[in-house]
TrEMBL record:
Protein name: Photosynthesis system II assembly factor Ycf48/Hcf136-like domain-containing protein
Residue stretches spanning the membrane: none
Gene3D superfamilies named among the record's database cross-references: YVTN repeat-like/Quinoprotein amine dehydrogenase (2.130.10.10)
UniProt entry tagged with the keyword Metal-binding: no
Alphabetical UniProt keywords: Photosynthesis, Photosystem II
Statement: the UniProt record of this protein carries the keyword Lipoprotein: no
Amino acid sequence: MNVEKIFARRSPLWGVCVLVVSLLVSLPLVAQATTLAVLQQPALPTAKAQRSVLLGLARAGERLVAVGERGIVLLSDDAGVTWRQAKVPVSVSLTAVQFVDAEQGWAVGHLGVVLHTRDGGETWQKQLDGQRAIASAVQFAERDVNQPDGASHLAQARRMLDDGPDKPFLDLYFSDRLHGYVVGAYNQIFRTDDGGRSWQPWMRHVDNPQGLNLYGIRALGNDLWLVGERGLLLRSTDAGQSFQALKSPYEGSFFGLLGTRDGALVVYGLRGNAWWSGDRGNTWRRLDTGIESTLASAVELRDGGLLLASQSGELLFSHDQGRSFDKRQSRSGGTLAAVQQAVDGSLASVGLTGVAADQDPRASGKP
């Protein structure tokens, strides 16, 4: 279960892979005990943490924060040159992390885990897990059973209850210290308006009747966006009260998206596919990335340039809104899951082989 998100970047059949793996490792009589153990066991300190599988990377002020397998969280205060391990209350794999400022941040992962930090990632507290998430989904679905589509949402919640609390969260978005969303497999989406002290299931607000996996969530202006498998593309124009499906320019899975400072939107996914929109998703232009590797991460650089990174370690730089790309190979030499620009303008990356720093002058821009 350590590299499910990497598998997601390799195949549109990731949902099937997750199900098969879950069945193999979650045999009756063992699953419940295993689930409780990893949700209660703190991440173990290890000298090999920097070489572990890492799946998420974010900036917390001037600090870099990386997350990955077995609950590992790493902190760097020197632009990725050195790292140290933080204290984490669970040992499940973490898939994504975001900070709204230098102190407040959240991380999500397997078994429906949501973690929160108030001290820049030094220590973390669990706010949600799969058991509580499913119980909440059933409770809200029973309450709203007489609403439009209420019966189908209740049936979906009960199926989640029967399946067990093993569904991972894969991404998150917080607009500030109070308001945020977490999203994941099988249309899982939860919302908080109090900084994560409480979470509401938000599935009935999303136009996703097939229950497709949600891989990414971001904001662009006043709009909120979701992307997922099979070209799933959804937009909310009413502060998240409803997410409407849009006609997608691509039938393969989207694994992430990026809203730029000038109001453009970039979505990216399988086989080097990336698309650009300058009109809030009404029309799309395919970006000629020139690669066939799955795109794993996108960053807007400080100088306004665009960086796309593939899981194979290819770094694609564009300074003309994606009309052309300059391809370079990451110095990490391994599979990439996420990249981030450090405070000094250099690039840091994480992936299957851990953390790496790329001192690339093309990534530097004026503050």
